[in-house]
């Protein structure tokens, strides 16, 4: 009778291309059986070899240890297919998150090292999702306007200072600032109290034949967090054509 092939841990490590520590870790997690030979060394049969290779493939596809443990027990084709479809859904979510991270970081590379007071007339629709969180104190730039709308892009860190927080989103909007014309300007000041800034805004509006509507809205940028730069603020103020 032909004797069944047995493998030592080092042999499987070389054949499959994974470390011995990884194999031992999977044994401790219960997804790979632990067997000892007469010399008390880890010993693996052909079925163990195949299962180890299978686990290696699953881990390469991003499946968790918990999912792999369940998948190894499931023999039904449709149930295994459901695991795979769930992993595809997770991957799509990860791709979306990674895509956002790449775009945000690429945008941050274009950040100006310094900001001057400058004005620009634009059209924009703000679609906002409200978050019930606190913000770091660095964003409390205008102490007299704590109850104003604050647009902040994708801040997930909490703090001990309260704001009304709105994150700009493409869908699931809790609040829509309708598409209209704004004057967008960047101030290098920590506080918009400089009469020269206010006068410059009025002068720009007069030159462009615009009238200012409502409050000035402060906008904090993700790039401020990445570079730890809080020495400027972006502002928006709604405007309309002066027909008088």
Which stretches are low in confidence, meaning pLDDT under 50 for 5 or more residues running? 141-146, 154-161
Q: Indicate how many domains the architecture comprises.
A: 2
Radius of gyration over C-alpha positions, nearest whole angstrom: 29 Å
In DSSP terms, counting alpha (H) and pi (I) runs of 4 or more, how many helices?
7
Structural class by secondary-structure content: alpha+beta
Q: How widely separated are the two ends?
A: 105 Å
Q: What is the N-to-C succession of helices and strands?
A: EHHEHHHEEEEEEHEHE
Largest sheet: 6 strands, mixed, barrel
Q: Percent helix among the residues?
A: 25-40%
Q: What is the overall silhouette? A: elongated
Strand order of the largest sheet: 3-7-5-9-10-8
Averaged pLDDT, please? 79
Brief account:
The chain is an alpha+beta fold and 244 residues long. Helices cover 38% and strands 25% of the residues.
